Fold:
Amino acid sequence: MAAEAGKVDPMHQFTIQPLFGSGNWEIAGYNIAFTNSALWMVISAVVLLLFVMGGMKRELVPGRWQMAVESFTGFIDSMLAANIGPAGKKYVPYVFSLFMFILFANILGLMPLAVIPGLHAFTFTSHFSATGVLAILSFAIVLIVGFAKHKLHFFSLFVPHGTPLLMIPLIFVIELVSFLVRPFSLGLRLFVAMMAGHVLLEVLSGFVINGLNAGLGIGPVVSVLSFILMIAIVALEFLVAGIQAYVFALLTSLYINDAENLH
Structure:
């Protein structure tokens, strides 16, 4: 939070900053600074790794940790089986990793770590550069699977069955454009949802600070009401964090289904 003279800049929280003096690191003229965004990507990946490792004990009577991992894995397995069929089994590791990585990233970004001086959580899924890369990765898998399995017949995906002959050129272009827009819309949906929630929380925190600085009168009332609303919004944001991770994984499975089954 950037607060100066009672003012809060809701966009300051999204500023990407180099860490550990890496601001001038370059390779072939390209800056490769290790940023706060990269740091929280690593943290999310490490948390995901620890989470999975804790569920690999294979105990006869599973503990809560193992049950949690198996529950999430079973959830993704069922989703892929419903959307892709038996062929979806081989995509479970990827979609599970994608879902959990986004989920942990979203949740860790909501942690109130700012109460510890010098420590600030960073939600890298609020940047389109991060969500866009995840979307492109899923889109690349769709293209690779589609052309590897169906060769040039993959282009039949853009001509729905029963399309009149005269309409084929127009329908093909429309379906192709719709297909190419998928990675953009996939990454944009997650980016916008996470960014909007954090901006709202920052604006409300500004109301709390300004209300306290206003002294006696209506100021404290505004602060209390804003703080209560913040608590409700935080609870909603945790729900949104899970929903957005699920939507990203669900759409990925649907796109893979197109590549596998040409629906």
